[in-house]
Design goal:
With 158 residues, the chain is mostly helical. 70% of the residues lie in helices and 3% in strands.
Length: 158
């Protein structure tokens, strides 16, 4: 089919070219975003403490967020565990449980496991926190070592 000396094959080729350019642009944007993300991951989250050995305000804020995240993970784990334990208990066959009873029971369990996690829970949050802070300290130590190396000792990674 021809429309004013432009055939449908040319239109389809033009659309494919436009889509190709868009795909190349999207791929480049993705590569840039991936590079930024990998640079952020490579940076250690904790920095060396000041001369007095005290934590900086950034370190304190990060430490607090990390602890809260670990407690949240433990609460989520305990909540799943409680739900699965409740599934093993048969329902009351005489009166049954209404939907409202199930919702209230679920809300009560959620609040209970949140309070358990804040109070220490089963210790999962503490283990996670210790492991993650050790990893951050190791990254900070490694970064410090690399920064203190002479240029001839540094290995260039490609």
């Amino acid at each position: 089919m021809n429309i004013d000396n432009v055939n449908s094959n040319w239109i389809m080729a033009q659309q494919a070219t436009d889509k190709g350019a868009k795909a190349v642009e999207d791929a480049q944007n993705f590569a840039d975003e991936l590079k930024r993300a990998s640079e952020n991951v490579a940076k250690p989250k904790t920095k060396a403490a000041n001369a007095a050995g005290e934590m900086t305000p950034e370190q304190k804020a990060y430490d607090k967020k990390l602890r809260e995240a670990c407690q949240g993970f433990e609460a989520m784990f305990l909540n799943i565990m409680y739900k699965e334990m409740r599934n093993t208990v048969p329902e009351n066959s005489l009166f049954g449980d209404s939907n409202a009873d199930k919702i209230l029971q679920d809300m009560r369990d959620t609040e209970m496991v949140n309070q358990m996690a804040k109070a220490g829970g089963v210790g999962l949050a503490d283990v996670l926190y210790k492991q993650l802070t050790l990893e951050d300290k190791a990254k900070a130590d490694w970064t410090q070592r690399v920064e203190n190396m002479s240029p001839k000792d540094k290995v260039v990674r490609t």
